[in-house]
Amino acid sequence: MKKDNYILVDGFKHYRYLQESYSENEMLSKSKNYFEWANKRRSVRHFSEKQIPIEVIENIIKTASTAPSGANKQPWTFCVVKSAEIKKEIRLAAEEEERKSYNERMSDEWLEDLKHLGTDANKPFLELAPYLIVVFKRPYEIDADGNKYQNYYVNESVGLACGMLISAIHNAGLVTLTHTPSPMRFLEKILKRPANERAFLLLPVGYNSEESYVPDIKRKTMEEVMKLY
């Protein structure tokens, strides 16, 4: 059944959608400009303590929440940590797991591959950054009566949302670092998350410090990352 601006598909509304399009020259220009802007993004470990309006963080998370997800279940929760006490607790727990990783869990090859990045088990940025965003995935939902409902393509969906989150942080003129201490169950305990949530990614968010340095790395070439058939 067709209405003025939507149709009914099995009884559900489907609104007409029009994507803004551009001329070929505009597409080339916009795509090139977007790449050059995105290529400036770097993972940063040196943060300023300068504060950020919470509205900026809210807009960043709203952007991440526009990501596609399996059956539109949107299986994510973004926990924003501003409390200095909780940030310290997270840092101590993360560093404990990181020390175990560096000393026991990581292979010699893994450790060798990390050397050029200058990383170690110390994570002061988890306290310095004005905000931490802890992303949780939700494999299933629980209603008020305790019934469970399945979510679909959870890792893929949350991964897409995290990519958009990182891009939105860069767009706001801020920096971040994808931090994945493993295991991360301590985040669920510290933040008292429900049984249907699992820690997926931890991102400090803020301004980079004046004395901020990043390793001299290179992106892979087009020949390495793209194959045309």
UniProtKB/TrEMBL annotation:
GO terms for molecular function: oxidoreductase activity. SUPFAM superfamilies: FMN-dependent nitroreductase-like. InterPro entries: Nitroreductase (IPR029479), Nitroreductase-like (IPR000415), Nitroreductase/BluB (IPR050627). It comes from the Bacteria. The keyword RNA-binding does not apply. The keyword Oxidoreductase applies. Keywords: Flavoprotein, FMN, Oxidoreductase. Pfam families: Nitroreductase. Residues 40-207 form the Nitroreductase domain. This is Nitroreductase. The lineage of its organism: Bacteria, Pseudomonadati, Bacteroidota, Flavobacteriia, Flavobacteriales.
